[in-house]
Amino acid sequence: MEAVTLSCIQCGTEFVFSGQERERCMAKGFGVPRRCPECRKKKAKGMESSNGWRNITKRRRSRRKEDYEFFES
After folding, report:
1. Which of 1, 5, 31, 55 is the most buried (most CB within 10 A)?
2. From CA 4, how far away is CA 10, in angstroms rounded?
3. Which residues, in sequence order, are CB contacts of 44 under 8 Å at separation 6+?
4. Ramachandran bin of 66, using left for φ above 0, alpha for ψ from -120 to 50, beta for the remaining angles
């Protein structure tokens, strides 16, 4: 397979997706990568450090009495 030049969706830099990488991804059932290798590493590191959750602040759930009346009956 031929090498393809792709553009990263996160940082916008162009990177080369080689024929060997394409064959490996196709064998595993993956699609074409949308991020460059550096951004993929950063994303994996962020996912690893936060136990699989993105670094998004947790939203508080409502603690109103009406929300719990359903469970009391």
Report:
1. 1
2. 18
3. none
4. alpha
What pLDDT is stored for residue 46 in this prediction? 76
Q: Do 37 and 13 meet the contact criterion of CB atoms below 8 Å apart?
A: no
d(CA 17, CA 8): 11
Over the Cα atoms of the chain, what is R_g? 21
CA–CA dist 5, 73 (Å, integer): 61
Per-residue pLDDT tens over the stretch 5-56 = 999 999 999 999 999 999 998 899 988 889 999 999 988 887 665 555 555 5
Nearest to residue 5, comparing CAs of 20, 13, 27?
13
